[in-house]
Amino acid sequence: MKKLLSSIIQKFIFQIMKSRYAAHLIFKIDFKPVKKGAYYFDMTTLVLTKLLLRKINKDDRVLDMGTGTSSIIGLTLWKQCGCYVVCSDINPEIVSMAQENVEFNQAPIQVKHSNLFENIEEDFDVVVFNPPYVPTKKGTMSNLSKQFQSQWDGGEDGSSVIKQFLDELQQVKRSVKAYVGINYWYLPKEKFLPMIEMKKDLKLRKIYRHAFLPIEVFIIEKKTSF
């Protein structure tokens, strides 16, 4: 019975995530229709955005990494906080769709094609990352989109992209704060925390846990090198 209820709730959530009207209602952003198989946002995007709106200042320079087809986080922060935003994604097709949505909103946001920090040359105060954390097998069994697999596929145990992100974050030359959103249905905190603790130049500052959604946001600080 519990599994059946969980399945029903999950299907309902996926329908909301694909709703252009719901996305506009929640984020106060205009959206171009996305292609079949894509979605406007997920639960992690929602929780991350709500938290960031309380934390980001107008003077902050923000990198929205893994921005997704609609650049929701980047556009929302630009529109409501007035901060400088650059968005990036590893998938060229997603970059193109995100750029269209940025232009649709007449936002002065650059969308870059980049594998994590690979093509990021600027310095930022804040990095926002809603990483792919769904284990490959689970995503395949759930019929998640193959076309947009880069948005959800976190490898065998869901942690492969996050591990690479932490490796590269540690190499950033200046001090920066990273907000990383995780759905613990797929990647529990007990797996993620040791990855941070292994990095001598990274410090976990805080964990925000949503009241009823299975989402945690980890605030990680890259210490300044001397």
Strand order of the largest sheet: 3-2-1-4-5-7-6
Shape: globular
Low-confidence stretches: none
**CATH H-level name... which superfamily?**
Vaccinia Virus protein VP39
The count of domains is 1
CATH architecture: 3-Layer(aba) Sandwich
Structural class: alpha/beta
Distance between the termini: 56 Å
Averaged pLDDT, please? 88
| Percent strand | 15-25%
The strand count comes to 7
Give the C-level CATH assignment.
Answer: Alpha Beta
Order of helices and strands: HHHEHEHEEHHEHEE
Structural commentary:
The chain has 226 residues and is α/β, with parallel strands linked by helices. The chain contains eight helices and seven strands. The protein has helices at residues 2-17, 20-27, 43-55, 72-81, 92-104, 136-141, 160-171, 189-197, and strands at residues 61-65, 84-89, 110-113, 126-129, 176-183, 202-209, 215-222. The chain has a seven-stranded mixed beta sheet with strand order 3-2-1-4-5-7-6, sandwiched between helices. The radius of gyration is 17 Å and the shape is globular. The model has no long low-confidence stretch (mean pLDDT 88).
Helix/strand layout:
Elements: H1 2-17, H2 20-27, H3 43-55, E1 61-65, H4 72-81, E2 84-89, H5 92-104, E3 110-113, E4 126-129, H6 136-141, H7 160-171, E5 176-183, H8 189-197, E6 202-209, E7 215-222
Parallel strand pairs: 1-2, 1-4, 2-3, 4-5
Antiparallel strand pairs: 5-7, 6-7
Helix pairs in contact: 3-4
